[in-house]
Specification:
The complex is a heterodimer of chains A (313) and B (332). Chain A contains 14 helices and no strands. By secondary structure, chain A is an all-alpha fold. By secondary structure, chain B is α/β, with parallel strands linked by helices. Chain B has two domains: 8-95 and 177-264 and 273-318, P-loop containing nucleotide triphosphate hydrolases (Rossmann fold, 3-Layer(aba) Sandwich), CATH 3.40.50; 109-176, no CATH class. Chain B has helices at residues 52-59, 85-88, 113-124, 129-142, 148-151, 161-173, 191-207, 219-225, 243-248, 253-260, 300-304; strands at residues 8-21, 24-37, 41-45, 67-75, 78-79, 96-99, 179-183, 211-216, 228-233, 236-242, 310-313, 316-318. In chain B, helix 7 (191-207) links the parallel strand 7 and strand 8 (211-216). The longest helix of chain B has 17 residues, at 191-207. Chain B is globular and about 65 Å long. Chain B starts with 7 loop residues before the first strand and ends in a 14-residue tail after the last strand. The model of chain B has no long low-confidence stretch (mean pLDDT 90). Classes of the chains: A mainly alpha (313), B alpha/beta (332). The interface between A and B is medium-sized, with 23 and 32 residues.
């Protein structure tokens, strides 16, 4: 099966997933306590105002009709109007999406840069002091809450030493790397701890595998044994974990973007929730769902690149 | 093959391999000495855990990553045990090759067999890409894989067990080694395939004038294929000599036991013979002869001292205080 057919199949399989996601989003907003119209209109609104908002939101229609409208509008790219921003939800999201995507990719890249080499050092020195030191440090990293690490870094590196900005986003690629370094490293410290642990035990397992013994017995140079035979095989399980933690990482942006005042989708989500901006919450939830599905698709594609046994299935 | 007069290419002297687990020393191989000549096939026989496989891994330098290897492995005037990894690398695969028991797990599942063959050629020869490819096809062809050129692009899971073992042999022999260490190469295969693979190994060994150390627990295989035989028990060689002589008149009670446990020409429903008891745990070896607790000809000295391997005829050695003099096995 060619990978294009595979991607097409996977995209088709996403349709029922998204249908379910839409139902959940739709019900979520309607099941939340309180009338969204009252929440939106504010305390001093008259009954007539509230009724007007209800009609504007389509809340007076029967549920099924409401769902149909929601579904068909969404498919056409119309996510409604943000009450908070007073513009189309889709425009607001398009504005913030790149920031969060950038932050996520940046965090993943940093995680891999930290976790990859250290996992190898730990695995190759299994049971000796480098292994112990690396594992202990990461254990500490894992047991501290992300927002706390973020605040500590912010206080020392940004506020006191003034090495990094305390917030903002920047305009050029270089500026972005600089501005988003602290939030990314905050997320990366946690994610890299998870990846390091997984990759370390995968490397240890693969090092003892017969095919690695065979590769050594063939007299291959050490870097070839490690790079070609050990790393690739160890990555298989780690890639799955990485995909899952990217999903986690996205919800983590709610905290990091708030702590570091990064104007991304995470912070927007928080603002939308506080303002009971239901159309915006719906739009953001859907966007996150799409992003996560996309990441899982990429993970599976990468897996099948890595492992020929998966290509036949 | 009569290779008695030829100078040995491999000489193993007093090889000791010790692993450490939870603070305890496990003597996996003790005082193992043997030699192999060009074109000679030496059978290394014993139960699971007797140290056969560790002996092979100690010779080719795989065991030292997991434990301490001492003694000497003389190869072309140098000692492989004392050789640093980066020098040893040019012997591994190029002069001494090893094949493993499990064809399912011994090939990297993520790489094409072509790549796994060519990387070996790349490490040990000056062949250019095209020449390496041609040699890879030639090797697959040599081990009997149909339409070799197309199959280079296939992955290990696309081959059957027997074919995979052929691929492993092709990879191991690609750089034209002079010694092949074969670690139970047919144990994991169907009985019908076993003979084919064994024949293949022996034919190639003969064609390439290669010495072979064949680890097996199958005395029938040894009788058919080997020139010399070494029987291992609890990390030690307890008997060795020319196959014919040993199998005709085994000296060590353990060898006798092994021979009796080969079911051959038995009427149906005859109870199978076996050596009573189990091999001792490596961290709790008996003080005397390691085989004494399971031995039927055990006498007083066996419990106090460990018998050394001594010559009983001009080319046969037995490590026993009370060797069997008139035993008959089923194999010889």
């Amino acid at each position: 099966m060619s990978s294009l057919t595979y991607i097409f199949k996977r995209l088709l399989m996403m349709i029922p997933t998204f249908f379910l996601v839409m139902i959940i989003i739709f019900l979520l907003v309607r099941l939340l306590p309180g009338d969204p119209a009252i929440a939106m209109a504010g305390d001093r609104a008259s009954d007539a105002d509230i009724q007007a908002i209800r009609e504007r939101l389509g809340l007076t229609e029967p549920m099924l009709v409401q769902f149909w409208l929601f579904l068909s509008n969404t498919v056409q790219g119309d996510l409604g109007q943000s009450i908070l921003m007073r513009t189309d939800v889709i425009d607001v999201i398009a504005d913030r999406l790149p920031i969060t995507v950038f932050l996520t990719i940046y965090s993943v890249a940093l995680s891999l840069l930290i976790a990859g080499p250290l996992a190898f050092v730990a695995a190759l020195n299994r049971g000796r002091w480098p292994d112990a030191v690396i594992r202990t440090v990461f254990q500490i990293g894992l047991s501290m809450p992300v927002f706390y690490i973020g605040l500590v870094l912010l206080t020392f590196l940004a506020a006191q030493l003034r090495l990094f900005p305390v917030g903002g986003y920047g305009d050029t690629f270089g500026e972005r790397l600089y501005h988003l370094f602290l939030p990314s490293i905050t997320v990366a410290l946690y994610t890299s701890a998870i990846i390091m642990r997984n990759l370390r035990s995968a490397v240890i397992e693969v090092l003892d595998a017969e095919y690695v013994q065979f590769a050594r017995a063939k007299g291959l140079p050490s870097r070839l044994v490690l790079g070609r035979h050990v790393l690739r095989n160890a990555l298989i399980s780690t890639v799955t974990l990485l995909g899952l933690s990217i999903g986690n990482l996205m919800s983590g942006t709610l905290v990091t973007e708030t702590v570091f005042a990064v104007p991304g989708m995470g912070r927007l989500m928080l603002e939308a929730i506080f303002a009971r901006d239901y159309p915006l919450i719906q739009g953001l939830t859907l966007t996150f769902a799409i992003l996560v599905s996309f990441v899982f698709l990429m993970t599976d594609l990468f897996q099948s690149r890595l492992d020929p046994r998966m290509r036949l299935q | 093959m009569s290779m008695e007069d030829q100078k040995p290419i491999l000489e193993v002297n007093e090889l000791n391999t010790t692993f450490h687990r939870n603070g305890r020393a496990l003597p996996a191989v003790r005082d193992v000495s043997f030699s192999v000549a060009r074109g000679e096939v030496l059978g290394l026989v014993g139960e699971s855990g007797s140290g056969k496989s560790v002996t092979l891994r100690s010779i080719i330098g795989l065991a030292r990553r997991y434990g301490d290897v001492t003694g000497q492995v003389r190869w072309k005037g140098s000692d492989l045990v004392a050789m640093p990894d980066r020098v040893l690398r040019h012997k591994q695969g190029r002069e001494i090759a090893m094949i493993f028991q499990e064809p399912m797990t011994s090939l990297n599942p993520l790489l094409t067999v072509g790549l796994q063959l060519e990387e070996s050629l790349r490490a040990h020869t000056d062949l250019q890409r095209k020449a390496r490819h041609d040699r890879a096809v030639e090797m697959l062809d040599l081990v009997g894989i149909p339409s070799a050129a197309q199959r280079l692009k296939d992955y290990p899971h696309q081959f059957s067990g027997g074919m995979r073992q052929r691929v492993m042999i092709a990879i191991a022999l690609a750089a034209n080694p002079k010694l092949l260490l074969a670690d139970e190469p047919t144990t994991a295969l169907d009985v019908t395939i076993q003979a084919q693979i064994l024949d293949l190994i022996l034919r190639l060994a003969q064609d390439m004038d290669m010495g072979v150390v064949l680890v097996t627990h199958d005395l029938g295989v040894v009788a058919q294929t080997c020139d010399n035989l070494a029987v291992m028990y609890a990390g030690r060689i307890v008997e060795q000599g020319p196959v014919r002589d040993v199998l005709r008149a085994p000296g060590h009670p353990y060898t006798v036991g092994l021979m009796r446990s080969v079911p051959e020409n038995l009427p149906p429903r005859t109870p199978l013979s076996s050596v009573p008891g189990v091999p001792p745990s490596l961290d709790a070896l008996p003080t005397g002869c390691v085989f004494a607790p399971r031995c039927s000809s055990c006498i007083e000295p066996c419990l106090q001292d460990r018998p050394a391997l001594t010559l009983i005829t001009d080319r046969r050695q037995v490590a026993c205080f009370n060797p069997v003099t008139n035993a008959k096995g089923n194999v010889a």
